[in-house]
Known about the structure:
Order of helices and strands: HHHHHHH
Distance between the termini: 31 Å
Shape: rod-shaped
Helix content: over 70%
Amino acid sequence: MTRMEFMKILRNELRKLPPEEIVAATEFFEEYLDDALEALNVDGLTEEEAQNLREETEERLIREIGSPRAVAKQIRAEYASRILEGEESGGKTKASVGSRISAVWWVIIGICSAPVSIPVAICIGCVAFGIIVTVLSIMISIYSGIIGAAIGGICALVMGCLAIPTVLSTAALLIGIGLITLALAAAAGVGAYIGTRELIRWLARLGRSINEKRRLKKLNKMTGGAGYETAQ
C-alpha cells in the first residue's frame, strides 16, 4: 500500500470526526514517514537506487503501522472517550445524545479492534454485546419505573383535585400522595441521570485506558513513544 492510498483510506474512515482531529491524525503519520525517510542513509547510492530505497522503506513502514481502517478505529475510540469524559465540550456546544451513543459505539469498536485471534475477538464482541444489552435493560427498567411513578403521581393529583368538592379529606390524601410520588420520581430521575452519566464516563475511561495502552505500545515500536498531538 502506498502512502497516498493509506492516507486516502484513513481520511475517509475519519470523515465523521471534526476537521482538526483528521488533520492532527494524518499530519502525525505524514511527519512520521517523512522523518523516517529523511533519516535514511543514501550516501553512495545513485538517484534511482536512493528512490527505490525510499519507496521500499515507506512501504515497510506503512505495513508496520497496520491497516488504516484499524488505525482509524483506535483514533475514533480515543476521540470518543474524550467526548464521553467531557473533555471536548469546553467552549463548544454540548454533545448531543446521538453523538454520545456514537461515541460509546466507537469506544467499543476500538477495544474490539485489537490484533487478536478471531475466536478471542468473537468472545470480546459477545461479552461487550452482553454488557450493553444488560446495562440498557436495567436503564430502561429504571426510567420506565420513574415515568410510571410520575404518571401515577399526576393521576393522584388530578383525582384529588376532582374530589375536592365532594370529600375534602380524600382529596387532601390523594393530593398529598400525588405530590410525594412526583417528588420521589423527580429525585429518582436526577439520581438515574447522574448514575447513567457516571457509568458512561467510567466506560469511556476504561475504553480509553485500553486503547491508550495498545496505542502507546505500538507507537513505542514506531517512534520511541511519541504520539500525535490532537489539535484543540
